[in-house]
Design goal:
The structure is a homodimer. Chain A is of the alpha/beta class and about 210 residues long. Chain A has helices spanning about 10-25, 35-40, 45-55, 65-75, 95-100, 105, 135-145, 155-170, 195-210; strands at about 30, 65, 85-90, 110-115, 125, 130-135, 150, 170-175, 190. In chain A, helix 1 runs antiparallel to helix 4 (about 65-75) and helix 7 packs across helix 8 (about 155-170). Chains A and B meet through helix 1, helix 5, strand 8 and helix 9 of A and helix 1, helix 5, strand 8 and helix 9 of B. The structure holds a DNA duplex (30 and 30 nucleotides).
Chain lengths: ~210, ~210
DNA sequence: ATCTTCTTGTGAAGCCTTTCACAAGCCGGT
DNA sequence: ACCGGCTTGTGAAAGGCTTCACAAGAAGAT
């Protein structure tokens, strides 16, 4: 079986298409063209068709793509048919903000537990999520079959946390600490770094101001 | 003047190199090789050299790169010599969490004001940042010469906010609302979307589990 | 002074992604 | 039944990014 590698950028676009399709579903739209998907997600019609064609043929020539079917197809492709059990490590400001972010549950990511080292927080409930001591991490993760974790610890603690999670069997990590994490190849990591994004903005603004040369 | 276009990925790597160089500076390291920079930021030595060579020659053959100089050079390239005035729109959970994130100030991004529509929040102080009504946005942004804004509003309000900011003269937007923003070409936008990143993780885990086919 | 060992800077090659362009095919109107 | 207008799916071309490979050059040992 020829396993084609799907690029990072393709996956991101698929995710955007899916969000758009959900909007269209609530608006009771039945079909959508690659042209419209492209316009609304900031890419080109050819790109949309290419992205989808990697996985099969889902459209109808002359009409477009059936919205509900394509929505289900993208969910299947992205692995969103199942609910994912997620744990949060670090119940500080960012961690707590994420728990309050209801979008996650709507999108199929159930946060089943949070962990922290602060004894004041342990035992409390944040938006319905119980906070455990980090020493319980291994047990809870194994007991609930958690596969995805969010790291929202201070940067110093992030690497140790990653290793704990890996040893507990977690296979995907969303990292909010501004450090690169070393983990085995079995584990997928994505780091979200506010400062890095601001620096990229800074670069764009500066180079635009003086014609491309920094 | 030949203005070469610098790719997204190059800028992100430059930002990572810079973070690394800051660590090395505090450890009093004097020189660093492309090999070490690469290993510590998850890329290859050739890539590091290529990235830097776009902007000039900063190293010394046989030795490596002088840490403090390269640090200053990268700051200059990324436009971080000046402090950037930033405003935050939307003082909800995520917005507040960001204000408490001290890294921003350390990295040269001064949040000078926050805006919200909630009358309970208006007038209050969050981590030393005053919350104004959104109706004051234009005035404050112009008065303080703000160039960068962070949108942390609910998704429904994000597009209107973006337009307000654009009209007030903001040229860079970091968007935490999970929607694409339409703005003029003059304005740079970067969207950070937690759900999208989790979906990308979901894809990676699912396709790994069954050999690449979703 | 010369030799060995590093390491940079960079053209060229290789690989991957995006864009182009068009045949195939659907739909509604006549 | 046929025609005209759209839209998909896809090979081929173009464009961009990464890796390779090596000459040029620096530092330290002998």
């Amino acid at each position: 079986m020829t396993t084609r590698r799907i690029s990072e950028s393709t996956v991101r676009r698929l995710s955007r298409y899916l969000r758009l399709l959900r909007d269209l579903t609530t608006q009771r739209e039945e079909v959508v063209s690659s042209q419209e998907l492209a316009a609304r997600s900031g890419t080109t019609a050819a790109q949309v068709r290419k992205d989808l064609s990697v996985f099969g043929s889902f459209g109808q020539r002359g009409r477009g793509y059936p919205v509900p079917e394509l929505e289900r197809t993208l969910e299947r492709i992205l692995g969103l048919e199942k609910k994912w059990c997620v744990v949060l490590v670090g119940a500080g400001k960012i961690g707590t903000a994420l728990l309050g972010y209801s979008d996650l549950a709507d999108r199929g990511f159930d946060v089943v537990a949070a962990f922290d080292t602060d004894t004041d927080k342990i035992g409390s409930n944040l938006f319905g999520v119980r906070v455990f001591p980090v020493s319980d991490l291994n047990e809870v993760v194994r007991a609930r079959g958690v596969e995805v974790a969010i790291i929202a610890t201070p940067p110093e603690a992030a690497q140790d946390t990653a290793r704990l999670l890996e040893q507990a069997g977690v296979r995907g990590i969303l990292n909010f600490a501004p450090v690169g994490l070393e983990v085995s190849e079995e584990v997928s990591v994505r780091t979200m770094d506010v400062a890095l994004e601001l620096e990229a903005l800074s670069f764009a603004l500066s180079s635009r101001a003086n014609g491309g040369r920094a």
